[in-house]
Each structure stands twice: as structure tokens, then as C-alpha cells.
Amino acid sequence: MSKFTVDPNATDRQIVGILDIAKINGILGTSFAVSGEVWMYPGLKKHVMKQHPGIFEAYHQYIPDVIESPDYIGQNPKEPNSVEFIKQISDTILLAIKLDPSGYLYVSTFFDLKNATVKINKRLASGRLKPYV
Questions:
Q1: What is the pLDDT of residues 101-121, one digit of tens each?
Q2: Are 93 and 26 in contact (CB under 8 A)?
């Protein structure tokens, strides 16, 4: 259980987790050189509620746990300055974190990964996704 919590009604940015940057770089072969603090902005709630109805309300409290102990991590090949975290809760949740050019990390989206088993297996086979061990 994470020491971080998510205030769903926050009107300012909040820290929702700390990434283990060394572990992520080791697993993914990346060279991120940033603080591990992950920020969430109020705009994320609006985005998720609009694009993925019901997901924010059902899963926002799990954001810190997804960040700290995902089942899988990977990178979208179209987003080299991002990391995807996948965790099975009651649905399989994908949470994406991006690196802002000014050097901070923020949650850019999260949603339920439909047809998760097939997608996870394809991404594991292609190397896009790796177990977080």
C-alpha cells in the first residue's frame, strides 16, 4: 500500500507517487535522469472522465499503487519520453506517465485496457512491455 493518496477534488497539482527510476531504466534500457516524483494535475480528472467514462471514479485511488507496483511496464514507441504501467485490479488498468520537457513527470492518462490478456501478450512478444520484477 502506497503512502501517497489521490485527492479527486484537488484544484492544484499533487504528488501521487515516486518512480524507481534506476529500476525502470534497468528494465526498459532507458536513460531517464529525473527525480522520481510523479505529479497529477486537475486536468487529468477531466480528461479521463471525458475519454474513459467511469474509470476515474472507480480507480483514482489506485493511481499511487499502479505507479509503485505495476505488473508490467513499457513504452509506447510513439512516445519515447513516456512510460506505461499496467496493473490488474478488478479491471486491467493502463496508466501513462510522461516527461515534460522542463523535467518533471506527470500522469497523462489512465484507462481500463480492454482485451487485456491479448494486448499484454502481444506487447510482451514485441518487447514493448516487460514484467516489473
A1: 888 999 999 999 999 999 999
A2: no
Torsion of CA 27, 33, 39, 40, to 10 degrees: -60
Rounded distance, CA 8 to CA 100, Å?
22
Residue 34 backbone phi and psi in degrees, to 5: -135, 165
Instruction: Answer yes or no: pTM beyond 0.90.
Output: yes
Handedness of CA 67, 73, 75, 80 (dihedral sign): positive
Three-state DSSP at 42 gives: helix
Distance from C-alpha of 35 to C-alpha of 37, rounded to nearest angstrom: 6
